[in-house]
Amino acid sequence: MRLLLHPSAHRSVGGASGGHELAASPDTPRPQASWMWDLYLLPAGPTECRATPPSAVSVVDEHLTEPGGSVLSVRWDAAAVHAELGTLTLDGREPRRRPESELWVLVASAGAFREGSRTVPAGAALICEGDDPLTLDLAPVTPSPTTVHLLRISRTDGSVLRWVP
Fold first, then answer.
1. Is residue 165 included in any domain, yes or no?
2. Do 61 and 72 touch, CB atoms closer than 8 A?
3. Which of 53, 96, 131, 160 is most buried, most CB within 10 Å of its CB?
4. What is the mean pLDDT of residues 81-85?
5. Whole-prediction pTM value?
6. In CATH, what number is assigned to the domain containing residue 52?
7. DSSP code for 9
8. Contact of 152 with 104, CB cutoff 8 Å
9. Position 81 in a domain
């Protein structure tokens, strides 16, 4: 499954701090669903978007600074999932193979990128999970290189991770 979350769909958090939730699981508050992970775009500097659960790991990577001084922040329940946040620089067509057990969140940073026939605009997040697609055909929209942040999430028990737990 692919799900494209445009910047206008990102939930504001932190009041005046100006942070945005790009993606989370679960993506809506439900008492029966256990929190597993979330990804935020936050202003640079100390910002608390909400309380971190006791079993959570929180990573704010200052190397992933966005235009305007924002950073990506990922939190996850270490008992349930493992998450890894990195950066890709696309300067041409670049196929990437995603393990079926992993959920990927790709965030367009410096410019838009294409995944197959889909255009992912700057600031948008593309969620990929399940068996469609396992190979992502990534490319910049323009001839200049494009920066894409990649969040890879997998279950600690090795089972398949789905967008909706």
1. no
2. yes
3. 96
4. 89
5. 0.83
6. 2.60.120.10
7. G
8. yes
9. yes
Contacts of 51 (CB under 8 A, 6+ apart): none
Query: What radius of gyration, in Å, describes the C-alpha atoms of the chain?
Result: 15
Encode pLDDT of 90-134 as tens digits.
999 999 999 999 999 999 887 899 999 999 998 889 999 988 789
- Predicted confidence at residue 22, as pLDDT, reads 82
Task: Count other Cβ atoms within 10 Å, centred on residue 55.
Answer: 11
Which residue segment(s) compose the domain that 113 sits in? Answer: 2-155
What pLDDT does residue 68 have?
Answer: 58
Q: Token pair for residue 140?
A: 């910049």
Any domain includes 97: yes
- 3-state SS record for 87-145: EEEECCCEEEECCCCCEEEEEECCCCEEECCEEECCCCEEEECCCCCCEEEEEECCCCC
58 belongs to a structural domain: yes
How many domains is the chain built from?
A: 1
Provide the token pair at 83. Answer: 């998450």
